[in-house]
Each structure stands twice: as C-alpha cells, then as structure tokens.
Design a protein that fits this description.
The protein is α+β, with helices and mostly antiparallel strands. It contains two helices and seven strands, in the order ββββααβββ.
Length: about 120
C-alpha cells in the first residue's frame, strides 16, 4: 500500500487510545475508542519508522563479522558472535515489521491523529 498526501484512507481495525486522568492520581475519567471503518484524509506522510540504536548496532556488527570475521583471532570472533547473538531479537523484531511508515490523518469528524502506523489503515 502506498500512502500519499491527500489520499483517502479508512481505519482497518478498532483503535483504543490512552486514558484521560482526573485531578486525583490514577483516577481514569475516559478512554478514546475509534471504530473500524472511520474515513479520513492523509495530511502528511512522516516516512519510515526510525531504526533503534540496537538495530543499527546489529547491522554494523554483522557487516564487520561478514567482512572481517575470517581474519579475526578466535577470541575476538567469538566475542563478536556473542554480541551479535545478543542483538538478534531486536533485529528480528525490526525485520519482522517490514517497511512501515507513519502518517498524519484528519478524520472526517475533525479528529487528527499523528504518527499513526500505516498497518491500521486501508486505502480507498
């Protein structure tokens, strides 16, 4: 799906957004729920979600290992492999979500949501 400015979209699933708190600590007075099927217009495409520091570090270490691992002393290579293995879960989570972007959408009822992930929208 390609999201562009001024493109009409529909909310593909129900969304629950945060809790409104009253003066007392922890006193919840409301919760905003948006139903699937709401339609609106994309105002801005924010671009791809940023990579975390852990994902960038995994990519750097993996490239280092692939390029120079065969020339490293065994202890250094094993330490590098351990560091890569430690970052593997963050890399798998990032890779699993694929290329995702966030958008700003103005719903037909006037509500505006910013940094909304594209995977909850369908293009009309």
């Amino acid at each position: 799906m390609t999201l562009e400015e001024d493109r009409r979209v529909r909310l593909a699933e129900d969304l629950g957004i945060g809790e409104a708190l009253a003066g007392e600590p922890g006193a919840v007075v409301g919760f905003l729920a948006l139903g699937a099927g709401m339609e609106g217009t994309v105002e801005r495409v924010n671009g791809e979600l940023p990579q975390s520091q852990e994902v960038r570090e995994y990519q750097r270490l993996k490239a280092l290992f692939e390029d120079y691992g065969h020339t490293m002393p065994e202890a250094s290579r094993e330490r590098l492999e351990a560091e890569i293995a430690e970052l593997e879960p963050q890399w798998a989570a990032y890779r699993g979500r694929g290329r995702r972007v966030t958008v700003r959408v103005r719903w037909d009822n006037g509500l505006v949501l910013d940094q909304l992930h594209e995977d909850v929208l369908s293009v009309l």
